[in-house]
Specification:
Blueprint (H helix, E strand, L loop, with lengths): L8 H19 L3 H7 L7 E3 L4 E3 L1 H10 L8 E10 L3 E9 L5 E12 L2 E13 L1
């Protein structure tokens, strides 16, 4: 891919808006927006800190049953990169108050006819 197709400003701005909309929904436990921003497909994958979720139904079930307290976090070292007009990667580290662990999150985003959606995500924790 030619470098002029990577991080085109308008496309990167769209992905940034989608990523930070997801982040706001995550910390406020806005399940409707979280659901909206994942691809509604059985091929969607989310590897969490303690669970492997295959398909949108498993992801929805996880969201409905996880605790809604203690979701606030601070992001660090966030990078977003777009490739062409329809694909991007978001990587970030996060910390939660009262925890020594460093969280890591990677999301693969694709622009579908319905808008930017997460098609794969991975969350892990490591000692800080």
């Amino acid at each position: 891919m030619k470098s002029e197709h990577i991080d085109r400003p308008a496309i990167l701005a769209e992905l940034n808006a989608a990523f930070y909309r997801y982040e706001q929904a995550l910390v406020s436990n806005d399940i409707a927006v979280l659901d909206e921003l994942f691809w509604h497909d059985a091929r969607t994958v989310r590897y969490g800190a303690g669970e492997n979720l295959y398909g949108i139904e498993a992801i929805r079930d996880f969201r409905l049953h996880r605790p809604s307290q203690g979701l606030d976090r601070t992001l660090e070292n966030t990078t977003l990169t777009t490739f062409g007009e329809d694909m991007g990667i978001a990587c970030t580290e996060f910390r939660r108050e009262g925890s020594t662990k460093i969280g890591r999150q990677t999301q693969t985003w694709v622009r579908l006819p319905c808008g930017w959606r997460i098609v794969a995500a991975h969350v892990s924790l490591m000692e800080g």
